Amino acid sequence: MTGTVETNSGTPDIETMRETIDELLDADAVPETLPPSADELADVTSLLRGYLDALMPVVEHAAARLPRNSVVRYCALACVGDARQKLQLQPSPAPGGDLAYARRLARALNALCDDYDKLRQATP
Asked: pLDDT tens digits for 83-96?
């Protein structure tokens, strides 16, 4: 489960990020899929946190290049704010809290990846 945050061209490696996201969120679609082990979950959570930390400033920078009244800009910046909030939270000590936290991070990263793609199309 190794992946780089950037491609050789210096752009974020969205494909690798989405593969990591799918490791956690595809299990939602297939209930009989077993959750990752504690070690695997810790690794995936660490990757997600790193991806979010790397992608948030890229999305912010791209959004800043759009006009202030742009819906794409507004949505992207709101998504960055949501991701920052999720990074500040801690997993619940309840059973399954670590997995629920990792899935929240995965959904936040997924939304940021979507916004990154939209910004690439909207940015001149």
From this structure: 999 999 999 999 98
Q: What is the DSSP string of 59-78?
A: HHHHHHTS-TT-HHHHHHHH
Whole-prediction pTM value?
0.86
What are φ and ψ of residue 51, in 5° steps?
A: -65, -45
Written as one letter, the residue type at 10 is G
Q: Is 115 within 8 Å of 79 (Cβ atoms)?
A: yes
How far apart CA 59 and CA 115 sit, in angstroms, is 7
What whole-number distance in Å separates Cα of residue 5 and Cα of residue 16?
A: 8
- In which element (H, E) is residue 27 found? helix 14-29
Question: What backbone phi and psi angles, to 5 degrees, belong to 6?
Answer: -125, 150
User: Cα 65 from chain centroid?
Assistant: 21
Q: Find where tokens 């679609």 sit.
A: 29
Listed residue (69, 62, 77, 81) closest to 122, CA to CA: 62
